[in-house]
Amino acid sequence: MGSVTRKKTLSVIALSAMIGLLLLPIIVAIPALASGGGEPAAGAPPAEAAQKEGAAKIEKARDVYYKTEGIVSGAPAPKTADNAQFYPRYNFESRVLLWFANQQHLYYGSFVLAVPIFCMVIEFIGVVTKDKAMAKKYDQLAYDFIKISLTAYSLTAILGGILIFTFLTLYPAFFGYLSSIFRPVMHIYALMFVAESGTLYIYYYAWDKMKEGLMKWLHLSMSVVLNVIGTLLMFLANSWIGFMMSPAGVDEQGRYLGNIWHVIHTALWNPLNVHRILGNMAFGGGVVAAYAAYRFLSAKNDEERAHYDWMGYIAMALGVAFLIPLPFAGYWLMREVYAYRQQMGITLMGGLLAWLFIIQATMIGILFLSSNYYLWQALGRMRGAERFQKWIKYFVFILVVGFLIFITPHTIVMTPAELKAMGGQQHPVLGNYGVMSAKNGGINVIITTTVLTFIWYMRGNKVPAVSWSKFGNIFMGVFFFFAYVNIIWLAIYGYYIPANVRVGLSVPQVATTLSCLFFMTALNTVMMKGAKQLGPIEWGKISVRSQYALIMLATAFTWMMGLMGYIRSSVRLFWHVNEIMRDNSPWAYTHTVGFGANMISFNVLFFWISIMFVFWLGTLGAKKAPVEAKVPVPGRAPEPAVGH
Amino acid sequence: MKTLIGGLLGGAIILVLALLSVGILPATSLKLVEGYMPMQMLFELGISVLVFALMSRLLSMGGISLPRFWQGILFWAFILLYLKFRVYPPIPFSVRAMYGTVALIAVFMWMSSNEEDWKKFKQPILNVLDAGTPFHKALRTTYLIALPIILWGYSYNSFLPNLDEPVELRTVHPAPPASTKVHGKTFVLQTSQNPYRVNPEGKYDQEYTNSKIVEQAMGRLLKPEANPWDEKAEGYLKYVREGGEIFFQNCHFCHGDNLNGRGLHAFAFNPIPANFTDPGTIAQLQETFIFWRVAKGGIGLPNEAFPWASVMPPWEQHLTTDEIWKVILFEYWHTGYYPRTWD
Question: Which of A62, A108, A129, A579 is deepest in the core (most CB within 10 A)?
Fold first, then answer.
């Protein structure tokens, strides 16, 4: 016994030392960061040399965003011209090549950042679950997830390399400038990759060794470290795109002013961070759910079907849990874009790119519709859930009305004859649906209905047995009724008040939706304690349509991510770095909507083909899962892991 | 009795729609009330769904049940006809196509929400494919002959020369430049302010001026003590009056005396001039955006505003900067909208 304890203690110390060593480079780098940024940027005279040359030569300039004064410590942004020096090229559009490399890297990057977060959550549920069989199932699921992620991780690194080579080969002047600005944190970024890889490998390979007691908790805490590093990595990468969209920390000529924090912390950095975390999670959930759906559809026996049905459900629940707050994060991002540059906001939502936003709204709607559809289909595997079926058509109606309003365009495609027949550019009905006030109402109605569907799903095969169940049901019904009334009323009221107040109205609307999400699911969970079971959940006995809905969900996520990335990047129009470095390549124009859509579809297709290969690789080295891990758990729906 | 009630309820809605569709009943005979149109349309659709559900229930209680397949198909047809013939002014095809597709998806979701319904929905299709009875066999043969002919017709049509004007994706609100130069002075659109939007102390005051605008309700009402045409009116209200005078001397010929884009010359243009009373125009924009558009006119539209379908003159050639600001002040005052701000 004593030797076991000593062995454990030594392992803990060894592991802590290893993590400490992995994090050491970052800690060492922090003082350089705090002092304002390591080496000076490209083209600038070294700081010491400048001092020797005399204080008179120190030039000061004003930060374009923060409006603070700083010492010029970098060269101006290069003024490029359309020639091979600035834009070397193959006999092909360089921008499209870069688009492809970037998008693929981002897909894989998102996936490998999201999956460890799921692993952390699922492993945690496994640790705290008292039911031994369930705990093992969760643990196995988390392990399956990380295994997929590991292969994808190396592919992410390869794609990252391809991306950098593409930048260096095709856009050397721009990449040189960007890396000169971010030089103080470039090495931190690289070192964090080392830390991320190290932690990931220990986490994966130590799974079996650290499966009991304290070691399991330590293993779990390692996943926290892994995710912290991963998130910081993403924040750093986001600071580059934030800088390109809303530069700060440089003067009007693009000269670095010595404060790296200003360069990182641009106007759009934080909204981008939040939006990307949530987006990655939803995307990761979707990809894993599609994987499970594919395995379900190709399953050879009931056991496999039951296992992958359950896996698909968990992944979908996780994905949707992060999908629900995503529109709100997107709304915040857009609000900040408008606040940063009105013209950028208008280009996005009312001008040149407005139709892409309509496509985006359509994709968001498809995501929610698919999630609801999946849950309705999932009711089919529960005995006792038949009582809910007759109400589904009303849910469909409410969802679709919200959806139609959400996708109504402000800029309508029409022939001049239709324009004339309409009596002007503004339609008295559609014109009202095409603006933000109505759209906010539409999306909140959709989300609230999704929450309601989920609560019904949780009740599928159960009837609450608590003494106050009647009161609880009435309270819940009234709560939802007034939530709908409040959302719709605020959407109408939005037309009668100033725009800045209207923007603020989204807060009570969102609060209403989130109240339904948190309070009502919590209330429902309490009401379902010791509920009367009407019948078992028959895992695996779900319609194949539900699995196609999951595949649809994942495809829509992927497509939407490609679309939003394209929109975000296109909004800079003919700038590499907005208002600082002009894009003078022959491709500094905005593609047609059709070309953009085709390119996004190609990227989606390529990603899915390559990820299928990754999944196939994962199955090659798979040990046969323990039989008990695949036994369907009778009569029990696993609660969604997060957010509900 | 129940069957009769059910049939009558649903039949009434279908009859009205049929009369609207064939033009016996003019589209405008069932009024869409201005200002309430969007909610009225949703309300009518909601009521129709409830009535159809009730009809279906009453009919099935009376022993008559419409097959699932036809329920779905007919409901979809109802939505398409409603959008085409009930709503006026007519909805452009692109939007109807979007709505119709979503409605079709909705019907699919409804019909396949559970296994039993899905089987019922599929059955008529499978019957035709299986051709178990002479009727179904005949139907299958008909499809076999008709489908290629329809496809041929479609292909033939698409190859015919089309003389219709092409579809346009006109950008209603093109993104403005960061700054604009008018009469030698540069205005930064993000930060410039209307110099006449002032309180009695002469300071820029959005809140004060907002409180004086025409109230939007059933009709538009002057706020008490806020009549710009009062001889004693000073400050903001006086500028609104001056803006109004400029508007009626220069703008109302096209934009209309009610600012709804239906002026004397409006219908000589396509599209007709902007309707300021619509919540999608000036209500969505900063005053500086309007300033830029008024000053530079149609000719000053940026590339992305293709096809530049605007005959608005560049008013900087006819009005002073102050006059432009005042006329904008009047437009917001009269429509009861507040300019967009970012605080």
Answer: A108
